[in-house]
Every structure is written in C-alpha cells, then in structure tokens.
Amino acid sequence: MSQTAQLTGPLSTGGPAARPSQPAVTPDQILATARSLRWQVGSDYHQALMEAIYTEAARIADRAVTRPGEKPRFDLDRTIDRLVTSRVWGFPLMILLFTLVFWITISGANIPSQLLSNLLIGVVYPWLHRLADLIGLPWWLTGLLIDGVYLSTAWVVSVMLPPMAIFFPLFTLLEDFGYLPRVAFNLDNLFKKAGAHGKQALSLMMGFGCNAAGVVSTRIIDSPRERLIAILTNNFALCNGRWPLQILIATLFLGGLVAAPWAGLIAALSVVGVAVLGVLFSFAASWALSRTVLRGQPSTFSLELPPYRPPRVLQTIYTSLIDRTIIILGRAVMFAVPAGAVIWLTANVHVGGASIAEHLVRLLDPIGLLIGLNSVILVAYIVAIPANEIVIPTILMLTVLVTGMSDVGAGAGVLFELENTEDLMRVFQASGWTLLTAVNLMLFSLLHNPCSTTIYTIYKETGSRKWAAVGALLPLAIGFVVTFLVAQVWRLVAG
Amino acid sequence: MSSQTDGPTVTALDQLTTADDGFTVTVEPLPAAAAGCAACPVHSVHNAANLRKLGIDMTDWDFVVALAGNPNVGKSTVFNALTGLRQHTGNWPGKTVTRAEGGFEYGGHRYKLVDLPGTYSLLATSLDEEVARDFILFGQPDVTVVVVDATRLERNLNLVLQVLEITDRVVVALNLMDEARRHRLQIDHRRLARDLGVPVVPTEARRGKGLPELLQAISDVATGRIVTRPHRIKNEPPALKQAIATLTRQIEAAFPGLPNARWVALRLLDGDERIAEAVRLGELGDLSRGSAEERSQSVQSLSAKPEPVP
Asked: In a mutagenesis test of the A interface, which of B120, B270, B274 is the best target, namely the one with the most A β-carbons within 10 Å?
C-alpha cells in the first residue's frame, strides 16, 4: 500500500502541502461519480460491505482462537439458539410458546376470577348497601359511591387481577430466561423489509406490556426516522390494559363455539391470533410510513443475544406481581373510580326525558351498526380514553342500562351481581350481540387510539403535537376501516 | 497456562521481528524491568520512571492517542490506568456521546489520550459512532488503540477491521485475557498480529497486566519505529471492487496524500452525508495539511450535535 510511506512521520507537514492549487478532480466531480456509482452498486451495498467485514472478522478470529481439549463441548446455549432462531422452527415455536402462556392464563384465571367476583360483588356489595341503609345515606350518594365507584372498581379487580397475576409472571419468566431478544432476532428481518429498524422488535415487545413504556423504549433506536416509525406503530402491540377484554370476549364468544374441553385452547388461539394480527399491522404500517412520509434506508445494528439464564422463579413471581400486576391494577382502579362515578351520573342525570347515556347511545347507534359494533361499545371507548382497562365495566353497565333488563340487577346505571359467564352471556345476548360484534370488538380493541398516557408520552418523546396526533389517529382510522370491512363482508356472507 | 499474558517481557512486538510478513521493526526488545512485580498495579505499568500519569494535564503533548473499542471491553479501565484519572466506567450505547481526555508521559514523550465512546461499528449513523468515527478520521490521532474483548474476538474484530480502513496507525489491545483463560480459550495473538498487520498486545487492564507492552507499542507506532501494514477488506463482491477502485482513484487525484482515500470512497458509496459534506467543503484536503492542534480543534466543533426527532 502506497499510503504507509506517508505516515512514517508523526505529522505530515511537508509533501502534500507543497503542491496546493489546481487539483485534477474537483470535489463536485467526485460526488457526481459517487452518485452515479451508487446507482450501479445497488441498494444492498451496505449489506454486502457489512457481510464482507463480518466474514473477514470471522475468518481471522477463527485462525487465531483455538479451544484446547478434543472437541468443543456441547454448548446448550448455541443448541437452543439454533432451534428458537431457526428459519423453519423459529416462528412456530414462538406461536406455540405464546399460545401456551395464554392458555395457562385463560384456563387458570377462571376459578380465582369467579371467587373474587363472588366475594366482592356477591358478598361485599349487598353488605355495603345494607350499611348505607343503616346510616341513612341519601339514594343518590349511595348510587354514586356504591353502585358507581365501588362496583366498577370491584369489576376491574375481579376481571383483571387473576389473568394479570398469571400472565405477567409467565411473561417475565420468558424475559428473564432470555427469550425476548430471540424473538426480536426472528422479527428483525421482517422489520428491515418493512423499512424499519430491527430494534423496533424490542420496543414492540415492551409495548405488549404497556404502550407508554414501549414508546419510551424506542430511545434505543438511533436514527430519528426509524425511531418515529417505531413510536407511531407501537400501539399495535396489544397492551395489558387490553388483554383482559381479549381474554374475556374470546372465552365467552369464541371458546363457546366449540365443545368444553377445547374452549380454553380456542380462546387462547384467538387471543394469540389478535396479537399476531397486531404485529402484522405494525409491519404494514411501518412499511407504509417508510415508503411515504418517513422515507429512508434501514440502518444496520448488532443485536447481542444474551446467554440463557435459569430464571429465578420465586423472585420473578414476586417482582412481577409487585412491579407489574399491582401497579397496573392500581392504575386501572384509579381510573375506574372516577369513570364509575361518571357512568353512574350519565345514566341517572336526565335531560329531556332520557338519561345522558341514552342520548349518547342513540346518537352513536348508526356509526356503531355500520362498523359491526354498537353504540354502547363506542361510548365505552370514549369513556375509556384515560385507560383501556375500563372498557369492560363500562360496556356491561351501559348494556344493562340500554336493554333495561330488570332481572339481573337493581336498577339503571348499576353494575351488579353477575356471578358467572352464563349471566354475562345473557346480558350480551339480550342486547343483540352477535359473533360479529365480539370479533369486531376484539379487532377494535387492537386497533384504536392509544390511551391518553401513551398519547402524552408520544408528545413528550417526539416534542411534536403533529406526530402525537398522527400516533393517536392513525390506529383509530385503521380500526374503523378494518371493522367496517369485516362487518360488510360478514353480512354479505352470513346473509 | 502458557506465558501468553503472564510474562511481561514477551510482547507481540518482539515476536514480530521474525515474522515473515510482519512489519518493519527497528526497535530493541523491551528490557525485562517489570518482571518482578507484574501483579502489582502501580509497578506493573512498567517503571515509574517510564510512565508518568498526568491526569488532566494535557499541555504540550507530542502525540494524540485515541482509545476505541466495543462497549464494555475495559476501554475506560485502560484509560484510567494510563492517566491516573477515574473516568466513570458505565457505558451505554447511545448515551455516551462525549469523550474523556487525559494525559501521560512515557519514554520522554507527552501523550494526550482520548477515550472515545464504545461502538460496535463505525458505519452506521448513531451519534456515538459518529463521534468516534469523526475523531479517528478528522482528529487524525497519531495512534488509535482498539481495545478488544478476547472472549468475543469475532465480534470485536468487526470494529478493528473498520478502524484499519480509516487509519494505519493502530495498536490492538487484546483485553480480558484472564476471562478468555477462564473460558479455556487459547488465542494466538502473534498470528492475529500478522493477520491484522498491526501490533497486538494481550492485556488484563484490571490488574495492570500487559500495560507496559501496550505503552511500548503505542510509543513505537507513534514515533514511527514500527511501520504497520494494516489488513484491508479484500473480499467484497467484484461489482463493488470496481466501483470502489474507480472512486478511490478520483479521490486520490483530488486530495493527494490523503491516507484513507479508499475508506472515503466506501463511505461515499454508502451515501454517507457527513463524508460527502467533508469532500464538498474540502475538509478532507485539510487532513493532509495543517497542524494536529488545528485538526483537534476542528473535531471539537463536530462532536455531539443534538439529534432532534423530525
């Protein structure tokens, strides 16, 4: 190489400086040549160069490193990696593992869920009412506090606590074991094809816990363009506030389609299906964004796969119960308390002969029907902007209010004793729910605006109202389109 | 265990004098001065007479030495051992965008040591990689020490090969040799030095082992007593080779004396805007002229640009 000669002196003060003016080639010519050559070498140049470097590094390292002893010992990590990141087995294993987690969650949550609801709603609720009568509280205060605030809180706890207490420790165990970076590894290629950053897989994983956390975790992505894509598409990861609804509706409507022994499995598979659908939407949205408003090349990065570690089971269960379950439940309850009060008020404050809730429901009915949902669900999603967790109680409360069912509860705007799934099913059927309503509700739960916390987080992370608005409205628009299409096709096919 | 790292007088350097395709070495082998107390952290860094840790005193330096490497390979430990400073060693990719600087004196010369952010690559676009890349390219350190993790040689060599594309004056510190031993890895650092074409020094920076040899190698490369023959990537696809050669010729014609025309060509073909800008503004031309002082100052203005989301 000729340039070594130039570098023998510590500072090259002579030589080149002696011949200054009139370079043979101007900088602009060089850049023009580079531009035209870039067209020739094509878009996989970066990849080809990286590969050349990696191959060379591997060759040199291989020559220099030897492991003493006969053969390299059996390497468990490498064997597991070969399996879980394999082209053939990687994705099936992923689906299998997550289905297993949800199946355990769904079938395990039933019994404690019923025990809790028996206790909180079957025993404590009437007792509170008797206490209120004893003290002589006015009817509206009793209604607001016990029928509104207490009941919605009780609902949130009994519906959400058991699945979360099972799901989060299981998920944390997978995380501790080191499986999630492998999932990111599997997804990396797909994200790259979508024009996004491979690390988006990791922020998406975080989003499955909480979208606000997922949005913050996009900080690991260096390129602003790719980071923005990751932020805007994070909401397609089904956050834990939405898991309970998915699990409940899947258990009631889809699990109910088949014989009892298979119900749990079918329900689990449908939930996995919705989650996978979310990932697919995330790909599609990333692809669309990177080809329109956020154009650019994906950048390369190295993802270090950490060694597998046997998870510390007890500690994991303890910390995931404290860190995730209790905190998320606390958040849900915090939002459920005022929401319960608001719902009770809308149901009991009458304007022009009908309650506010009835007005709202009537107003939104045409839209609801058009997209295969109903007005109650839409109202619930407006009420639930602060927290997705509140959707189920709101739907239940409003449904009973609208249908005017008298045998299941005490009166308008009151959440009552629904001890088992058959009672729940009766409420839904009475208000005209069909399988389409259930399926579209699951889809809409996946595809709608993120909660207010996440929207605010997007605003903080991007520093832009515009992108916060896009982050909020993009999934909502997709949700309307998808549910509308599903409803039309369904009605055509089903007659 | 063999004397790979334990014998402080056996360095990759003096072995290389006999290597058939090694580099020209015109230096006497090191005196066996520190043999008696290799484990003792103060004296193991050769002799107190040879190394003077200058802390933040970087006045009147003769040579600039850059410390590069992947995150968490012990770069900051090497930095602290040589300068006597206590640079915080936590290092997260994407977070550390500043450089730590310190000074030391060795063999009659004063050195300024610059600890660059840890990076896996110099090809991508993140801020920390840009800071490291810009310093090696525009700051033109007299020596770039790449600290590598001996237990993860393959991954670390990716960075070494990229640094070798930018600058010839490289010393590889093969760090964490103690961990490599624990993993029962045997690393032939002499073969590595031959393959890379630059000095390779096994070290255990945490215990100060191998640092005297590292200092000697730095000084030899800085003063030009060792002329390196850095390995260059040759296995790109043929179509690329042609394009790279064409562009390299043009760049060499425009900027005679530029030490890394080929690397500039590689970056231009990758659409690197920063390098294109440097070509446009003639900053590259400055690399073959101007004092090291000026170059160092021009780098100050480059580092740590804010990175807003659009």
From this structure: B270
